[in-house]
Specification:
By secondary structure, this protein is an alpha+beta fold. Helices cover 64% and strands 18% of the residues. The protein is globular.
């Protein structure tokens, strides 16, 4: 199966793309603090999204260790735009920022 189709076949993975679009780059532990999922399950979903090009991770030093920080890519933003979700997420974000 094409990595992009596999990545977007999961509702949770589609949610993660939108979540990072709205809230910006995050460490895996910060994502897990906002969504109730085991660390192994989250790592699995993030790996699939990175392999498909919707997210990228960078290794950042934090507290003397290296951790993965996840960012949405341009490909991820294009996917949200294709779904029509980008405008809705922006609208919701502006509404909650008031």
């Amino acid at each position: 199966m094409d990595p992009k189709f596999k990545a977007v076949s999961s509702e949770f993975r589609r949610f993660l793309i939108g979540f990072l679009y709205v809230y910006g780059p995050m460490f895996e532990s910060d994502i897990r603090g906002n969504v109730k999922i085991s660390s192994s399950a989250l790592a699995y979903h993030l790996k699939i999204l990175v392999e498909a090009g919707f997210l990228r991770n960078e290794f950042v030093g934090r507290e003397g260790k290296k951790f993965s920080k996840y960012h949405i890519t341009e490909e991820g933003v294009k996917f949200l735009d294709f779904l029509g979700a980008k405008k809705e997420l922006e609208r919701l974000t502006r509404k909650t920022a008031r």
